[in-house]
Structure formats: C-alpha cells, structure tokens
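User: Just a sanity check before I run the rest of the batch. Below are the structure tokens for the first item. I only need the designed sequence back.
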C-alpha cells in the first residue's frame, strides 16, 4: 500500500464530513470561483494564507514561491496577476513576507546555489543596498529587516506590472498591500497601508528606493 494512503483516507473523510453537513457544498464550489484576494507569499509551509487569515481557501487566489518574489520576467507570476485581476476581478493583491524565511536567511548567509541563487539574485542586490543598516544587527533582526524591505520591493514590482497599471488606468477598484507575518507570534503586520493608484505606488517607491 502506498505510503500516502493515509492522505487519501484523510481526503475522503474530509469530503464526507463536509457533505454530511452541507450536501451541495462541492456542487456550489464547482460552479463559482470568485476569490476577493490574490495572495503572493512564500512557499514556506508555515505561512499558508487560508490558515493565517482563518478564511476558507476558496476566497484566496494564491501564488507562492521562495521568498515571495515578483519578477517581471516570471511568466508564472505575471499570469497569476493577469488572471486574478482581469478574469477573477480580485479587489486586493497582498504580497506577504515572513520572519524566519529560509530564502532571506540563505541570502544573508550567502549560502545560495543553483536555481535558488538565480531566483534570489534581486534579494542579494537588495541586501547589498542596505549593507550599512544590516551590519550591527543579529541574524534574526537582519532577516526581518531584509524580509520587510523585500516585501516593499515586490509590492512595487506588482504595481508596475502591465496588468495592474492598466486596471488603474481603467479606473478599476484594485488595491495592493505589503504585509509581513511573524512566525513566532502568528501575527500579520501591514507595512504600507492601501496602495490604490499609480500615484500612491510611485510615492512608496520614492520613499523606499
Ligand atoms: Co520564506
């Protein structure tokens, strides 16, 4: 028997429990996909958005990768943003970083190699740009500082994507947010408030970079 048999059993009893409470649940789920939020987060298994937000997963459209990066030449991330905004009509895009991030720590300790090294290049550049600020701090403090600044950077990348720029030009209601999750307390912090226009995005860029 497969080692993952237990997971299939868990799935069966999960579906069964839901159907016994609400017989039409999966029929309704199959007929509608209208999440209000796009979440761009880290792949870290401790940071699943439906769990931290205590929301049903169908309310959150999700893109996750190592260190919640938004590269303008990443067709996967750019397609997610395009589909979320143009088709699903999400109202909010949240970029969320977190404390104790393996990707951030690897960059700080210069322990990246292979594809991860390539993927995290922009984070390395960011680290170099604030080297003075990071010098005196402990590893934990440095990783929080870099994770927060990385969120701000990735927020500006979301804002400059063609999809978001066009949505704002068309007067659509769309806001972008930068948050950080503290794994040691379970608490999310809003770093930037609501960014609702190209002008407010430019103000963030001006302030930080
Ligand atoms: Co992480």
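Assistant: Here's the designed sequence for the first item:
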């Amino acid at each position: 028997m497969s080692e993952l048999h237990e997971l299939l059993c868990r799935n069966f009893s999960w579906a069964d429990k839901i159907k016994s409470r609400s017989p039409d649940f999966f029929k309704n789920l199959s007929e509608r996909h209208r999440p209000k939020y796009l979440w761009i987060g880290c792949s870290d298994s401790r940071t699943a958005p439906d769990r931290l937000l205590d929301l049903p997963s169908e309310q959150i459209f999700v893109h996750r990768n190592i260190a919640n990066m938004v590269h303008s030449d990443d067709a996967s991330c750019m397609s997610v943003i395009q589909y979320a905004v143009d088709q699903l009509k999400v109202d909010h895009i949240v970029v969320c970083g977190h404390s104790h991030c393996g990707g951030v720590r690897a960059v700080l300790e210069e322990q990246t190699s292979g594809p991860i090294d390539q993927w995290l290049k922009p984070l390395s550049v960011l680290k170099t740009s604030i080297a003075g600020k990071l010098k005196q701090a402990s590893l934990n403090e440095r990783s929080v500082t870099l994770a927060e600044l990385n969120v701000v950077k990735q927020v500006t990348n979301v804002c400059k994507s063609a999809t978001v720029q066009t949505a704002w030009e068309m007067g659509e209601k769309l806001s972008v947010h930068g948050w950080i999750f503290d794994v040691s307390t379970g608490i999310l912090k809003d770093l930037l408030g609501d960014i609702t226009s190209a002008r407010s995005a430019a103000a963030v860029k001006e302030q930080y970079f």
